[in-house]
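note to self — DONT lose this again. spent like an hour looking for the file last time. sequence + predicted structure for the chain T wanted, 498 res
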Amino acid sequence: MTLSIRWKVALGTLLAIALGLAVAGVLAFRSIEQLELARVEEALTARTGLAALTLEPFLAHPADPLRLQAVAHELARQASARVTVIDQVGRVLADSAVPDEAVAQIENHGSRPEVKLAFAAGRGTDVRRSDTTGQRTVYLALRVAPAGAKNPSVVRVGMPLTILEQRVYDLQRALAIALSVAFVVSVMVSFLIAGGLTRPLQDMATVARQLTKGAFGQRIQTVSHDEVGMLAKTFNQMADQLDRDFNARRRLEKVRKDFVANVSHELRTPLTSIKGYVEALLDGAKDNPAEAEQFLRIILKQSDRLNLILEDLLQLSQIESGQVQFRQEPVLLSTIAERTLASLKPLAEKKGHAVTVAIPAGLPLVTGDEERLVQVLTNLLDNAVKYTPERGTIQIAARAVDEAWLELSVTDTGIGIPNADRPRVFERFYRVDKARSRELGGTGLGLAIVKHIVERHGGQVWVEGNTPVGSRFVVRLPTASSIGHNEAVPNQSTSHQV
């Protein structure tokens, strides 16, 4: 049977506690017994010394055995102990534990450990079961050598351990009850601790199972700040990442499907046109020179459009995948404006547009790829020229937002962009007026390319409405000083009208 982690933690904790309590109990039982025995020996020392002092006068000269036995009985009564007098050869002269007439029949005590030690060193102790009384007894023997006596004797006092054993038993029983209560409390505490430790792990297992089923919104609720809490927090972060990744993949899949659909639609239009006019030529239009030339010009125009779409797609793909390496060098906004205006000046003049450039002196430099920034402004200015009616007004302007940012804007008096469409104009193939966009030759990818180039420069791009008509596209770029350069050109002012 497989145990859950909660039971493993609880049983492991209980085993450790049980072993600790068992070791502590054994040591405590032994300590109690030794402590009580030491107290008995301390009391026995005093009583034995008093008995030896009292019996010493009776041992100085051969004493009456009955008198010696009577004194031993009295001392035993007062000391609540057994008093024994032993001569040098081990013969018992008096013993309070036996009747007077039985003293002579007591076996020789010369071999008793405490007696041998007393004769050899003056003092001897031993703990054993008495052959005479049958009780477990602690003995203390003192050698007594009265003045005038030929040979020393030994006075021995023995205290039965019956009372001591009962006291030790009572203390050990109380300790056993206390240890049992402690064990029961430990059982409850260990299960509480195991539950607190393993509940987040069980929650993680539950959430993990939910994640495998696709329920990415599940999270672990925890308030602890220990390792388990950190693990739960990390798990939640992983779930968040999975949720973002899943949503991102879902959005990416939608974008991919939309992209494929848009590409198919955009490519189908020129291909259908080319196919139709080729079929018309084959059906006989080739025999009419004027009509054939017109059809061929249309086919050429649609081929150019098809080629332009493919070029923009390739460029956008390279920028998104990071294959295009952007240079990082100081760039003047006035230089970008001049280069862009030079390339689009003929188209603007053809439609009679008034194009103005207003870039104040002293603007900081930006760091980036000049060619790509020219491409950004070219796309924006090209759209402004295309979607602004004849004799309209277009302005290229720049300003410093603060020390870290510059704004480059293109404002026109064209047809404008509705509020609902502004957030989406930077999407691939998104057009406000699809028919007019195709008529003007747009691929629907120019603003998407602009957005990616600007973001690769660490900037932002958006579109606003212009009052009273038209649109205002704004590109915000970081200054060179904000990313490690501190350069400025005091006289880069450009202000002229085409």
